[in-house]
Amino acid sequence: MPFSRDRGMRQMLADIDSEVGYTRRLIGKAALDRRVMDAMARVPRDEFVPDEMKALAFDNGPLPIGHGQTISQPYIVALMTDLLLPQADQQVLEIGTGSGYQTAVLSLLCRQVYSMDLIPKLTDAAASRLARLGYANVRIRSGNGYHGWPEHAPYHGIIVTAAAPYVPEELIDQLAPGGRLVIPVGLPHFTQQLLLVNKDEQGRTHTRDILSVAFVPLVDSPTATGDEQ
């Protein structure tokens, strides 16, 4: 059957709804925010995968994008976005630009998205792709995600799309009071847990385990990705 974006998108959205149903006791809700689902429906995922993967673009699973990195499963993108509670007047930070897919989804829900990745080839390609597709409220640079992007802090939300062995304190510091950090924590080949960290108005943090996940590691050296700066 030939590739159809419309058919693929409908199936992807249905698969996300099904996954929410399967995990509703873990995530604490029976449906994701309609704004999030609408944003997922507006971003053409096939534009964010390699040409040879376009037929699989809307499958509910991760796909390789080169440099040892992946584009996340659509359900996980939708869930992490929902957990962030993005609002139209807010600015958010994304650690792990990858192909720019999560960036595009966030851009439809926030005033400004700052996104960074350790691999310059990915950030360059993502910036070009997002500009071509008309996502204007994003700024992208390469850099070490463990240190965040302090120049534009504080952020109402921070989303990390690779697994760190711990929650980086510098990201907590860059989170605004009342803000949220969504991050997978754990080691490669071991159980990773998706965490939601809330920072209250007094600067105290409260962490909630959401569900088990599997992400590529958040690294702090370009050689760990097989890429040289």
Percentage of residues in helical conformation: 25-40%
Distance between the termini: 41 Å
Number of domains: 1
- What is the highest CATH level, the class? Alpha Beta
Indicate the CATH architecture. Answer: 3-Layer(aba) Sandwich
Order of helices and strands: HHEEHEHEHEEHEEE
Beta-strand segment tally:
9
What is the fold named in CATH at topology level?
Rossmann fold
CATH superfamily: Vaccinia Virus protein VP39
Mean pLDDT: 93
Concise summary:
The protein has 229 residues and is an alpha/beta fold. The chain has helices at 5-27, 34-42, 74-84, 101-107, 120-133, 169-173; strands at 63-66, 69-71, 91-95, 112-117, 138-142, 155-160, 175-185, 192-199, 205-213. Helix 5 (120-133) links the parallel strand 4 (112-117) and strand 5.
Task: Summarize the helices and strands and which ones pair or pack.
Elements: H1 5-27, H2 34-42, E1 63-66, E2 69-71, H3 74-84, E3 91-95, H4 101-107, E4 112-117, H5 120-133, E5 138-142, E6 155-160, H6 169-173, E7 175-185, E8 192-199, E9 205-213
Helix pairs in contact: 1-3
Overview of this protein structure:
- By secondary structure, this protein is an alpha/beta fold.
- The chain is built from six helices and nine strands.
- It has one domain: Vaccinia Virus protein VP39 (Rossmann fold), CATH 3.40.50.
- The radius of gyration is 16 Å and the shape is globular.
From the structure above, extract its key features.
alpha/beta, Rossmann fold, two-stranded antiparallel sheet
